[in-house]
Design a protein that fits this description.
single chain; mainly alpha; Vanadium-containing Chloroperoxidase, domain 1; 11 helices; 75% helix; elongated; transmembrane helix; PAP2/HPO; membrane; sphingosine-1-phosphate phosphatase activity; transmembrane
Length: 211
């Protein structure tokens, strides 16, 4: 355990200090917002609309405009609710672990290059550092998007990895915390997305296809 903690801190210093450059100083504070809890709701709505767009070609054209609108509205609404359910589970597990471990943030344990405002740092200090909630959110969203557009999955996971690195670069998380956060968000999303019967029930895919 001691070796792991030392390695964790060494990698942290490497990313937080040795990677310092003007470009990262400019873009990392913006990239990290992609994993903000408030932004996740925007992702959920966007993915729900994307799912409606993908579902549209599978329906027959003999439905009236009103029937199509009602059908698409139901698909979008229920799929969004499905994503909210996944997010609720992921956020609940992440918050519970933060409370359980209550690990101090890197900037509370050692001298770091802290690249967030004093106000944000004070807010972060009220929550445990393990695991990284932003990283968990980013990988959860990446799993959603990879499910909808598999051919772009590498771009989505690349985005999530960048969010994870931003948390280290900004000085608010250790590498081990973002790694566990990534695993947490991805594994919960993939596990629940694998429940085909639940997806069919929430989106009524089996009822709609072939009509």
């Amino acid at each position: 355990m001691t070796y792991f903690l030392q390695f964790d801190r060494s990698v942290f210093i490497w990313i937080n200090t040795d990677w310092t450059n003007a470009l990262f100083d400019l873009i990392m504070p913006w990239i990290t917002h992609l994993g903000d809890p408030n932004i996740v709701w925007v992702w959920i709505i966007g993915i729900g609309l994307l799912r409606v767009k993908q579902f549209a070609p599978s329906t027959e054209t003999d439905l009236s405009s009103r029937q199509k609108f009602k059908l698409y509205l139901q698909v979008g609404l229920f799929f969004c609710l499905f994503l909210v359910l996944i997010y609720g589970v992921s956020a609940g597990v992440c918050s519970s672990l933060k409370y359980l471990f209550d690990r101090p943030r890197p900037f509370e344990q050692q001298h770091v290059m802290l690249r967030v405002s004093a106000g944000i740092a004070a807010d972060l200090s009220e929550n445990g550092s393990f695991p990284s909630g932003h990283t968990s959110n980013a990988f959860m969203v990446a799993a959603f998007l990879a499910e909808c557009i598999p051919r772009r999955r590498y771009a989505f996971y690349g985005m999530a990895i960048t969010v994870a690195l931003s948390r280290i670069y900004l000085g608010v998380h250790f590498p081990g915390e973002v790694l566990f956060g990534a695993f947490l968000g991805w594994s919960i999303a993939r596990s629940m997305l694998s429940f085909q019967w639940l997806r069919n029930r929430l989106t009524r895919e089996k009822d709609y296809k072939g009509k």
